[in-house]
Amino acid sequence: MASLFRDRTLGYSRRESTGAAATAAVSTTSSCRYSTSSSSAALSPLPSPFSDLTPSLSASDLRETAYEIFVAACRTSTGKALTYIPTDRSPSPSPSPSNSNSSSSSPSMQRSLTSTAASKMKKALGLRSSSSSGIKRAEGSPGSGGKPKKPVTVGELMRVQMKVSESVDSRIRRALLRIAAGQVGRRIESTVLPLELLQQFKAADFTDQREYDAWQKRNLKMLEAGLLLHPHMPLDKSNTAAQRLRQIIQAALDRPIETGRNNESMQVLRTAVMALANRSSDGSLFESCHWADGFPLNLRLYEILLEACFDVNDEASIIEEVDELMDLIKKTWGILGLNQMLHNICFSWVLFNRYVATGQAENDLLDAADSQLAEVAKDAKTTKDPAYAKILNSTLTAMLGWAEKRLLAYHDTFDAGNIESMPTIVSIGVSAAKILVEDISNEYRRRRKGEVDVARSRIDTYIRSSLRTAFAQLMEKADSSRRASRHQPNPLPVLAILAKDVGELASKENEIFSPILKRWHPFAAGVAVATLHVCYGNELKQFVSGITELTPDAVQVLRAADKLEKDLVQIAVEDSVDSDDGGKAIIREMPPFEAEGAIGNMVKDWIKTRIDRLKEWVDRNLQQEVWNPQANEGGFAPSAVEVLRIIDETLDSFFQLPIPMHPALLPDLMSGLDRCLQYYVSKAKSGCGSRNTYVPTMPALTRCTTATKLWKKKDKTLNTKRNSQVATVNGDNSFGVLQLCVRINTFHRIRTELEVLEKRIITLLRNSESAHVEDFSNGLGKKFEISPAACIEGIQQLSEAVAYRIIFHDLSPVLWDGLYIGEPSSSRIEPFLLELEKNLTIISNTVNERVRTRMVADIMRASFDGFLLVLLAGGPSRAFTLQDSQIIEDDFKSLKDVFWANGDGLPVDVINKYSTTVRDVLPLFRADAESLIERFRRSTLETYGSSAKSRLPLPPTSGQWNPTEPNTLLRVLCYRNDEAASKFLKKTYNLPKKL
């Protein structure tokens, strides 16, 4: 049909070869709502929101009736005949055949269109100019015969836009002229147009009977639709006129009726029709007939008229002459029972529906619909008419449904090619939702409007819905990528792939969509990332709950999650910086992934597992360790080498873990390793004894039998204790001197290697990707804290144990049982020195040179302590005269010379330091008894005060020898082989006079 008129030179009246051809051409559109031009794709409109009419009315039926109403409404209100006479540029062209019987027309209908016409409506709605104006379409190229071009009137333009043939148009105009002639002075609103048209024509006025029958049926069906199916006022089922009309129509549809002016059947039809068309609620007669103003029939007819504003050759473009055309279309309001508010609704829908039907390519149509919807919003606030509200609700629901279908998954809907349409679609969706909620919803009215922000709520819903959908798609994509790469080396875990994809989605959202949505929701980006955060967090939570150990996949996922969370939080914070709460509400929607915490916990489990294994290894291997220097190359235990190797490997493994927090977790590992080494040292020195193990219990004063027995008893106890814990130098016991020396070497080796390990840790830390400058500012967590001290303490303890064992146990026969027994001159120190030198040689050959000096110094101190013990607590078998003092001093000098070794031994200052006590005590042996007694009295009085004047108390044994200490002075007197000393001791303490 469209091609029929597009190929012609409009402005002519060239009758088709037959009227039937024209009718057939028009009727080809009856099966679809819109015809299709050869230059355009078929339209795909949305279902009408105005509900369905009777299925017996086709699209062409409605279009022809709408055109009839349009032509009828545009006639003059005077009694002049309604006709159409185009104005020619050329002198007095002959009228076209179709208009040869016409004489005048409505001024608005016969107004000529000019190419300079500029549409105010299009400018107001922001619509683009069409590629060809109505003038250009109408003028076209000259037809065959070379007839001149003629300007086009608004009426002719409407005929072309509505795809009505010239023959049909001519017939309509003839009928309207006849009707007007018979009803002079009556307005068209008082006429039931289908009834009057039926009365004007007979079969002879049509090219054939089939065309006439179709025409008659259409008018009868229109009467049925307007008066019975969709009446202006509700129809009582008992209404006799309605029953009669229904019977007439049903009969006429089976067998055409006679429609002459004075025909009886026509009179019956008129009676029934007018009775229904003139009904009122109070029984009075209306001045206007109500046959096309019932909902939704009137809206469907008006919708067709508004669709005529679109260019037949460019279905997405409104014609330039829309202002003039719209003025004429609005003249149908009286017949259709419409007003400006209903026009606004209908026009909004037509613009919107045409945008959808033409493939959503012309955004200016969408913008125009949005602009028109703003007028609808104003109207909705000024009226509460229930019929209007019903129409408004159905129309906006249809528009909102279409918009939300796209906005609830806008990531699937919009891309770089159509993103420009998104703001308008959002605007339409929000506007429709606001009108539906704020102006129609009873629930909303019952609540305070300030409690609901409709726009923000809808955008919030769109964001969350679309991102959940996009996230689900990313999940499927990530899973597919994982399956595709499962045969490749080190394929990425699904959640690691997903984290990367979600990060990219968040960036895209922040850069593309959030700036658009921010117009309605100030924190659109924050809501978006919060939604993604929750979606990913749920998946991550399930993943973490299934992790039992630290695997590369687990670490990859958690690291990716940690990076993703930082990126999402950053976007949320930046988006919410201007909010009243500083973004706290959004952040509360983002429960922390705690990825670092999960990694930390797994690493701590990893650390604990290895520390526990190392401790078990220490227990097992130390039980089997052989502390024999001949069996241990280097003089230290193989177990120490192995434990250090395990620690080194553990550190390597730790820094190879693909985690982002080596500096933070290193202290936990160091603490565990530190405790293991301390445990090793503690277990290695356990049972080895100490200085006090070998120092005998201090005997009581001599010169009495009881004291002698007591000394022997304690000495026996000491020997028993020694034999249970120590062995001889050459024995196989693991606690012998050589075995103790190996342990000392082992502790020293561990301490030395710890320094090397600490330097290596710093290097490993510097090479760690997660290390920062501040991680090197202090040594906390990067050094062994307790094991070096444990090694030093162990070396000290065992060094003293070795020294006092040699002096008080191994050399006891030559020191305790030989030195100064009987006559001092005949039992001097040389035998002891010989044995001492042998032991010093063994020690020097066994102990590491870095601890050798310390051990020799401890042996020297032990030998000095033993020398003094012989002099001051050597038992009743020893007694000294004044003359023996020189022997004692010479022997002590010889003892010191052993350690000095002609300058190759210990430094003089060290020897002097340890020999201070002996040097202070030895002068007492040169003092006479009287002076010793006097010094003893004076010292005792100073210690005990006036209570000591009547009787000198017996000073307790402290073991801390000092020339001014009462017990030391008393012991020198006890071992003095002198009469004065014996008398004093007998008189003061009743001690025996003889030793």
Automatic annotation (TrEMBL):
It holds the Pfam family TPR_PATROL1. Residues 83-155 are annotated as: Disordered. Residues 555-698 form the MHD1 domain. Residues 97-108 have a biased composition (Low complexity). It comes from the Eukaryota. Residues 826-936 form the MHD2 domain. Residues 109-118 have a biased composition (Polar residues). This is Protein unc-13 homolog. It comes from Nicotiana tabacum (Common tobacco). The gene is LOC107812798.
